[in-house]
């Protein structure tokens, strides 16, 4: 079994960042004439680490990114280098079809300084780019940015802000899927914005939306008629996904009534916001969220569905980034009404050591329940839930094992939750 790479120290990451900045500086200095001393001094000043990062945090918003292959996009959308397919279907002026060029990097546009930020966030260190390190809220990566903790957090927010939707879509120029191109042939989805201009009309005509343990219900008014959108899926992001599907299907000529009758049948992937229970029992949600960013997003997505308390169970894997453990604790404490910390996959690391790291992130650890046995923890939390509560089981999702001391034992959050929900009926019936 391959040993995991050790978590880099902030000093190592800082040196890595400074090497990149110095490389960019040297390339510019080499182009200067000997008599351009003023420009030389300016470059030296602007390429100090803190000065360069401050400017990069400002310029990151200037990057204009690309659309995903074959995603429909309004022909008037601007900001990306697009290649139209000769056989692109669709009504003129409504929807076209575009694909990326062979070299994804060529589809990132912006001024030279902004493109330097793109290269900076793309830097690979121990198998992950800097954007990934910052998105996972690695304490070492954040500290590497600045000795001033507040400044470092502010810059982190600016850099990872490229992955967040900014406000409500309101124009054709936003009718695109945004991706962050990676070296080679890969890409990372940044902001799941609506893929057609028609979806903007659908979204704008959303009269109201309700979130509950039954899922999503929304009154929809479109140029093609009115109707009630119902779905067992959870979270506002899934409402946006459903609206995107409605808009695309309407654009292809499918009747609104047929679309709305089909939506309740759509199910999400196993272990990703998977719902169990509900109705006359607590709603239990099993999700794979095992990073600070993912845990934050799933808790925020579930909050509108909780008529009463939002309860969270999570743990952290062993032999992995220990810096995220207290960060996940702080997020769970801030966003959930009750928290239970348990084992995830301890692997070869001692469970007690992992939980001790997590405990450091709680402001009021005395209000948190710590129960290492994950099966017992799931049973305990669901048994303590009321009928209107929502229970999140985070971290393992679809996995059908738990790795302890290097051995994978059969274990499923889904099966454990189903068993606990069946037992819940006895004391609560």
Automatic annotation (TrEMBL):
Annotated Mur ligase C-terminal domain ranges read: 271-397
**Species name for this entry?**
Pseudomonas aeruginosa
Pfam name, any one:
Cas_Csy1
**Which PANTHER family does the record associate with it?**
MUR LIGASE FAMILY MEMBER (PTHR23135), UDP-N-ACETYLMURAMOYL-L-ALANYL-D-GLUTAMATE--2,6-DIAMINOPIMELATE LIGASE MURE HOMOLOG, CHLOROPLASTIC (PTHR23135:SF4)
Q: Which SUPFAM superfamilies match?
A: MurD-like peptide ligases, catalytic domain, MurD-like peptide ligases, peptide-binding domain
Q: Where is this region: Disordered?
A: 76-97
Protein name, UniProt field:
Mur ligase C-terminal domain-containing protein
The record, for InterPro entries, names: CRISPR-assoc_prot_Csy1 (IPR013397), Mur-like_cat_sf (IPR036565), Mur_ligase_C (IPR004101), Mur_ligase_C_dom_sf (IPR036615)
For this protein, the record's Gene3D superfamilies field holds:
Mur ligase, C-terminal domain, Mur-like, catalytic domain
Signal peptide limits: none
Q: Which GO terms describe its molecular function?
A: acid-amino acid ligase activity; ATP binding
